[in-house]
């Protein structure tokens, strides 16, 4: 089944069916046990009445047995011989013997001597002349059948022992009919079987309707998502139900995902547009110079062509690094002495117009776990930015702070207006759009630096440096 409603309705119906069947079986078992116990109690009463007469030495032929049709009685002696039965008893089973023809025991008349007067017999039963005893032990119960006056039925038999004054132990088997128990159980079972389909139909219908109502917002979300997919309009949002359940949270999460996706697509589109624009200029300049050089070799500006090629190479490298970062490239796990890395990067900058002042701890300073190449790229980008805007000084300092390491790059340039201190980390953003491209770069250096810092679990911020200039601080967590 592909429908959630159908699966839910089927599942609920199966669960209810199993529960009802289990409960019904439990009810039937309890009902049968109670009714059987009642029949056993009736059989015990009838058996004790007869046993009491036998204890009083009432002759077998004069025994008064209660309602002989409902309570068939069979009396046996110690040898298992039948000595008395109730009137019209034609057949019996479940009492130990199926005989219904009395066979009086000779011991009933012969076992009456003076040795038992006022003494205990071998079985420990007190014998009093003219009076026997009825066993006070719990009766033995069994199920069987009996035929009385041509009618056969099931009975619950209770077996009671009685001892007459002659010391003869007799066993009375009295039965109580199980017809009432069988009729009650059959009636309840029939009612349950008749009502079960109705209950299951009601459960299935209610589950179907409730599930349909509950899933209606999901269908609305699905239709809107299908429309968004077809139109490619990421500005649309799915409807959010007013409830506070899982479906409402799903709708809110879906809208948050659409918002993030829209922002990502917009950022990607801007990135592609800006990258195309940035690549177009050096490529066009390089092509013009090569075409002029091909036509007029003496006019070829080799230095300009090399500069455009270098700028194009740097831009392409920046774009490739950003693409890898956007694709989720994981940072390296190398342990790097950040002070030594700063020294190394500054020592390689031989062409800077302003000398860089370095302040780092002695060897054994703070270490970070990172991609050495990417961290070197961040430091280089921060120094490039400081060289571009500084008037007379650029300084870089390293220090340990809050379980990590801080690299601070300071210049004495015009600084960054407070309102623009987050915008400068966006891609292809240059605050001074009027300056020459050769001086301003493509606007990717700070964006790359912040992306790398974020992916290493750190942060990159900018603030003022006193009265003039800017101070960029890179914080990275220390090695563990």
Describe this structure in words.
- With 480 residues, the chain is an alpha+beta fold.
- The chain folds into three domains: 4-184; 234-329, Signal transduction histidine kinase, dimerisation/phosphotransfer (DHp) domain (Helix Hairpins); 331-477, Histidine kinase-like ATPase, C-terminal domain (Heat Shock Protein 90, 2-Layer Sandwich).
- It is 47% helix and 18% strand.
- The protein contains nine helices and 14 strands.
- α1 runs antiparallel to α3 (179-231), α4 (246-295) runs antiparallel to α5 (302-326) and α7 (372-389) packs antiparallel against α9.
- Residues 107-129 and 433-438 have low confidence and may be disordered.
Annotation keywords:
single chain, 480 residues, alpha+beta, Helix Hairpins, Heat Shock Protein 90, 3 domains, seven-stranded antiparallel beta sheet, 9 helices, 14 strands
Counting H and I runs of at least 4 residues, what is the number of helices? 9
Give the structural class.
alpha+beta
Q: Helical proportion? A: 40-55%
Whole-Å distance between the termini?
53 Å
| Largest sheet: number of strands, sense, barrel closure | 7 strands, antiparallel
Total DSSP E strands:
14
Oligomer: single chain
Order of helices and strands: HEEEHEEEEHHHEHEEHEEHHEE
Return Rg in Å.
52 Å
Strand content: 15-25%
Number of domains: 3
Which residue ranges are poorly predicted, with pLDDT under 50 across at least 5 consecutive positions? 107-129, 433-438
The geometry reads as: rod-shaped
Instruction: Give the overall pLDDT as a whole number.
Output: 84
């Amino acid at each position: 089944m592909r429908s959630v409603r159908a699966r839910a309705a089927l599942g609920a119906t199966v669960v209810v069916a199993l529960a009802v069947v289990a409960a019904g079986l439990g009810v039937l078992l309890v009902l049968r046990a109670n009714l059987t116990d009642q029949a056993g109690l009736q059989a015990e009463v009838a058996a004790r009445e007869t046993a009491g007469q036998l204890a009083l030495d009432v002759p077998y032929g004069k025994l008064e047995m209660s309602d002989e049709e409902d309570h068939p009685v069979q009396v046996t002696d110690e040898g298992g011989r039948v000595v008395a039965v109730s009137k019209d008893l034609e057949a019996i089973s479940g009492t130990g013997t199926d005989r219904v023809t009395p066979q009086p025991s000779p011991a009933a008349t012969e076992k009456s001597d003076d040795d038992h007067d006022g003494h205990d017999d071998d079985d420990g039963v007190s014998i009093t002349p003219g009076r026997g005893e009825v066993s006070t032990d719990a009766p033995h119960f069994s199920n069987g059948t009996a035929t009385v006056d041509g009618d056969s039925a099931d009975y619950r038999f209770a077996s009671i022992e009685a001892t007459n004054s002659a010391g003869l132990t007799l066993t009375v088997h009295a039965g109580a009919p199980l017809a009432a128990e069988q009729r009650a159980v059959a009636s309840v079972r029939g009612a349950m079987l008749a009502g079960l389909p109705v209950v299951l139909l009601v459960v299935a219908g209610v589950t179907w309707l409730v599930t349909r109502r509950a899933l209606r917002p999901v269908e609305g979300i699905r239709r809107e998502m299908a429309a968004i997919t077809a139109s490619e309009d990421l500005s649309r949002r799915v409807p959010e139900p007013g409830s506070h359940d899982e479906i409402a949270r799903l709708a809110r999460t879906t809208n948050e995902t659409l918002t993030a996706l829209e922002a990502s697509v917009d950022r990607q589109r801007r990135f592609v547009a800006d990258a195309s624009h940035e690549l177009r200029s050096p490529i066009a300049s390089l092509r013009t110079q090569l075409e002029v050089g091909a036509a007029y070799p003496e006019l070829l500006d080799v230095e300009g062509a090399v500069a455009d090629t270098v700028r194009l190479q740097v831009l392409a490298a920046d774009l490739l690094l950003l693409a890898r970062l956007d694709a989720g490239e994981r940072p390296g796990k190398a342990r790097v002495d950040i002070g030594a890395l700063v020294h190394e990067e500054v020592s390689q900058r031989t062409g800077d117009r302003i000398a860089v002042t370095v302040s780092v701890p002695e060897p054994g300073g703070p270490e970070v776990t990172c991609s050495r190449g990417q961290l070197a790229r961040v430091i280089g980008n921060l120094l490039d930015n400081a060289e571009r805007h500084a008037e007379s000084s650029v300084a870089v300092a390293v220090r340990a702070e809050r379980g990590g390491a801080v690299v601070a790059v300071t210049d004495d340039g015009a600084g960054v207006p407070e309102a623009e201190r987050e915008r400068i980390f966006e891609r292809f953003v240059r605050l001074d759009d009027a300056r020459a491209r050769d001086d301003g770069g493509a606007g990717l250096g700070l964006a790359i630096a912040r992306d790398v810092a974020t992916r290493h679990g750190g942060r990159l911020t900018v603030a003022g440096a006193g009265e003039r200039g800017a101070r960029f601080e890179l914080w990275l967590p220390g090695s563990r």
